[in-house]
Design a protein that fits this description.
The chain contains 8 helices and 13 strands. By secondary structure, the protein is of the alpha/beta class. The chain is globular.
Amino acid sequence: MKPVIGVMPLWDDEKDSLWMLPGYLDGITEAGGLPVILPFTDKIDEITQLADMCDGFLFTGGHDVSAGLYGEEPIGDLIESCLKRDVMEKVYLEIAIDDNKPILGICRGIQLINAALGGSLYQDIPLQYPTKITHCQNAPYDVPVHTVSIIEKTPLFSLLNTTRLPVNSLHHQAIKQLSPVLKEMAISEDGLIEAVYMPGHRFLWAVQWHPEYSHKTDSNSKAIFSEFVKSMI
């Protein structure tokens, strides 16, 4: 039996509809998992029932995380958040942690996980953390645009066996204050946290870059999906 992995849905405000990037599903499928796109709901009883059916969870990219989740007010009109999605994902995260089920976060995923666990975010990198590093690239999105330094003696270093990793990048928010229950695994050239994990949890990793775009051509991206699925087998 393949492990069933609940994938957080992407939401289109203009079309009032769910959507999905195939790379999230393909990355899981090619690693031996069975991805299922979760319905868009903030009803606790429904989330609890659905969570019980899943062996692990993928927290995807998309909307900005609501500033209220980490006790701040949004800065101007720069933030495009989806409160219903934040509420839903926070509940899934809490259940997954309580049940010790594997979790992988990508882009928004690392931000949501950090904020929900007591950390904070830079709401807008260009405004709050000026840098010459490209954090929001143009297409094609599978091409690396900067490098990250992987910290030795972390799970990501053990998997990839390197301290330097070229990554793609497509975000304007980032971790500011790290959650007290998370640890850094990778840092960008300009000092932003690019990967984290939760010590003691069966598998809770999150990365700021986008392996869903690069897993078909990049062995390191493929390895992250594989390690995630392997933690459920």
